[in-house]
Amino acid sequence: MFTIFHTADWHLGQSFCGYDRDYEHCCFLDWLLAELQSQRPDALIVAGDVFDSINPSAVAQKRFYNFLAKACTTSQGLQIVLTAGNHDAGARLEAPAGLLESFNISVVGTVKQDETGKIDVTRFLVPLKAQNGSVQAIAMAVPFLRPSDVPFVDNAADPYLDGVRELYRQTTEAADVLRTTLNPNAALIALGHCHLQGGEESRDSERRLVIGGAEAIRPDAFDPQIAYVALGHLHRAQQFDGGRIRYSGSPIPLSFAEASYRHQISKLTFKTTQLISAEEIAIPRTAMLLRIPATGPASIDDVLAQIEALQLAHNLPPEQHPFVEVRVTEEGPDPLRRRRVEQAIEGKPLRLASIKVESAKRDAKADVVTAATPHVDLKAIDPEDIFQDAWREKYGNDPDMRVLEAFREILLQEARG
Fold this sequence. Notes:
alpha/beta; 2 domains; six-stranded mixed β-sheet; 9 helices; 17 strands
């Protein structure tokens, strides 16, 4: 028997509506270390988006490397395979690869091509060994693929999608050759950071991978001889092809759209070339995300009443105070709206993350809100509300605290003339 843990989309260093997630990420990494020690898998696979940004903070990088160091010293024989996602700087992630290899850690962040444009797929191949040193699987550690990373395919209906398929075909072929020399009964395990056709996206948190959105690859891009496909990018844990293809999902909710997700890692067990069992291990939630109201926008008076009626644990440390998104029905200009909400939350163990003014009319699908477009007097609206609405329209999320502070400084300068 050979076992692996599959996880992805850590997004270390994420700034969430002006708040950092360092405490939550620390709790997750400590929990993962404990699971590695107690369950003793042979390998840990991380399928992309280790960091939230191509320029992660020093704190985020410290958390990452401290985790790797502890995992190597406390879980003897553990092999770790990491790939870059679309949020990562692939070259930066794999820069210390030579050093990490001495600790049984393999990192693949980029696609290398020769002068003719041919891709070296052999660098994606990582033999995975059991505790006794025998090769039991071949990992195909394919990172996030940009259009320039995939091979050219003659007469392709879609150059990107057909190129992705061709790259996985070439990689699988090379992996099959390698296992013939190492252990013909080894399982093939593919990694990917991509959007699979039919996969359920999370609103507000997952970036489009390819300009134009034509990015979803078909499940049959993965050869049937591949025992397991470990994917990253989509934050909701989900599976395809009878469980052979899985997204592990993110370890913490990265937007309010993910507040109801069950966050988990996947434990996979293989016997020779076959996946024989899969188990989902739930990750404890450290800080809750609350939407008020939970079912949709309400009047400001109803919202304030619901805040007042909340049953809250007052003994939690500040790092565990719930994040709150307030959803108010559009009822015309209200320059005091924000102030009233802030006053209602003041003194409570809550962290106000967002105030969203929404139309009462909602799309029947998912969590889509139809924007209202009333005629309003701009002079009666708080300039900060206008700025935040414009920011959401352009970027799809809320400005963080640094942006808001810069905007307030500009307002102050304008007021002073």
